[in-house]
Amino acid sequence: MAVFLDRDTRVVCQGMTGWAGTHHVARMMEYGTQVVGGVTPGKGGRSHLNLPIYDRVAQARAQTGANASIVFVPPANAAAAMLEAIEAEMPLVVAVTERVPTLDMVRVKDALKGSRTTLVGANSQGILVPGIGKLGVMATGSERPGGIGIVSRSASLTSEVVAQITAVGLGQSTTVGVGGDPIHGIGMRDCLDLLLKDADTEGVVLIGEIGGTEEEEVADYIAGLKPSKPIVALIVGREAPPERRMGHAGALTLGGRGDAAGKVKALEAAGVLIAPSAHLVGETIRQALAGRG
After folding, report:
1. Which class would CATH give 141-292?
2. Where is the active site (predicted)?
3. CA distance 53 to 140
């Protein structure tokens, strides 16, 4: 059973008529994702990529039966797009937009409380279920169906790890990019929980980085749960200078908090295997599965 995305997922794209939406939605459709329409205010009634365009998310959902949305809206208006999807009770929203203003995301996080929506992102590369569909901007070609779930804060490293896992003969069940901005929707802990409960996931890879406390929260969860499925983690940014943003807006250590060493220490104490290098993640999870067997 895939996590988040399956053959019954019906997707609308908010901002589909822009360049990014047009390009990536076309790639999603080529991969097999069931895209059923787009939302661009003021362009309702038109057609784009041979799909109907609606003015509002609620209207698109009512007309198409969509149960997921992907957001390709520029940062200044991205939060408004997410809020509209939450108000329309869209079950799943993936926000690709990077560097949405922090105060805007605070309002989005508040709106998510008690809602029926699961938000992935912002600044997410999306969700990929090999052979089923993709809801995002990740590269494809090296992925294969298999038993390893991936939860990541890094888009480029996710592609590298997917290729490694395929190369060692394991393949992936579901890959989720939680997003690299400091405030986002679903976090690493809740994604891990879903993958550990997934019957088709045999092991999990976590890709973390400096900044924030998500990896420490995951470590606390694992320490309390003591899961039987092997978990491997890669934490990047070990040589990053303090108090300097490294790529993602959330990849920033402040006051000695959020550094790579602390995250590695917490995860190791919880029983997580730490990949010694980025190029050894696939081999580490292969060995972990072989050792369990």
Report:
1. alpha beta
2. 248
3. 27
